[in-house]
Automatic annotation (TrEMBL):
Gene3D superfamilies xref list: Vaccinia Virus protein VP39
Protein name: Methyltransferase type 12 domain-containing protein
InterPro entries the UniProt entry points to: Methyltransf_12 (IPR013217), SAM-dependent_MTases_sf (IPR029063)
Family matches, as PANTHER family: TRANS-ACONITATE 2-METHYLTRANSFERASE, TRANS-ACONITATE 2-METHYLTRANSFERASE-RELATED
Segments forming domain Methyltransferase type: 53-156
């Protein structure tokens, strides 16, 4: 999901586009199916005639879901290569509901161009950014544009890697413990956080096999929400998606935890 203009951010997403598309496919991975989508279904109100803006659409997972629920969707991404893969995965029955357009969410001028269009002037009932906030270097253009792009009762919904437990670059630990009475082994997962308030951008990968690294941008919660509050938006829903089914936990992946959430989801509205 690409929305930045610096080398290592937008460029890396363009370079990784084909690999990302193959990895996510049309149905997404287990994080999409078990964590992201359930939260989005609870947070995103989709009524008949809903107009939606999908920012950083990647290979179009959210755009396809919104369209399947009957929304008219403008799906955008900073990488035109990503948009090509997203368009190719759009089912024929939803092609009339989804339009794809290049938009870099870190660029004020891109939002200004959108606001100058008829669709932008009419506004959106739903603006969605799924799993991309931690991938972009600045939220200021997005926050400034939201009050103008949202309809009166519109909402902005975002999901991202958890700012406390993941993008703080916490150390992940998996311990295999033996029960001396039963003779059985148990797996204990934990995280050690040594930095939170000031974590500089760092290189990482979404898929271990992807050809290029990407940059992650950590924001403590007061910074994450502060930029939106300053723009006049208010928080009205928050979730910390986590795995609840032990069968879904991969013992080799310390991010899979039933007590420590890996994701963070929130919804904002305009102040009354």
């Amino acid at each position: 999901m690409a929305s930045s203009s610096r080398s290592g951010t937008l460029d890396s997403w363009t370079d990784n586009a084909e690999h990302w598309d193959k990895g996510m496919g049309s149905e997404g991975n287990k994080y999409w199916r078990l964590l992201e989508l359930p939260s989005l279904k609870r947070m995103v109100p989709i009524a008949p005639g809903c107009k939606a803006l999908d920012l950083a659409t990647g290979n179009g997972l959210c755009a396809r879901w919104l369209a399947s629920e009957g929304a008219s969707v403008l799906a955008t991404d900073g990488s035109e290569r990503m948009l090509e893969f997203a368009a190719a995965r759009t089912p024929p029955e939803h092609e009339h509901l989804v339009e794809y357009k290049a938009l870099d969410a870190t660029r004020e001028e891109d939002f200004e161009r959108l606001l100058a269009t008829e669709r932008g002037r009419e506004g959106f009932d739903v603006i969605l950014m799924n799993m991309a906030i931690m991938d972009i270097e600045t939220l200021d253009p997005l926050a400034a544009a939201l009050p103008n792009l949202l309809k009166k009762d519109g909402v902005f919904v975002a999901t991202l890697l958890h700012p406390v437990f993941v993008t703080s670059n916490a150390t992940q630990k998996v311990e295999i413990r033996s029960d001396l009475e039963t003779g059985r082994t148990t797996i204990a997962r934990s995280r050690v956080i040594t930095q939170y308030l000031n974590v500089p951008p760092y290189r990482g990968v979404a898929f271990e096999t992807q050809p290029e690294w990407q940059l992650y941008f950590h924001r403590p919660l007061h910074e994450l929400f502060g930029v939106f509050f300053k723009a006049g938006l208010v928080l009205d829903a928050l979730e910390e998606p986590h795995f609840t089914d032990e069968a879904s936990l991969d013992p080799k992946n310390p991010e899979d935890h039933s007590q420590i959430p890996v994701l963070f989801a929130f919804r904002l509205r305009q102040r009354d």
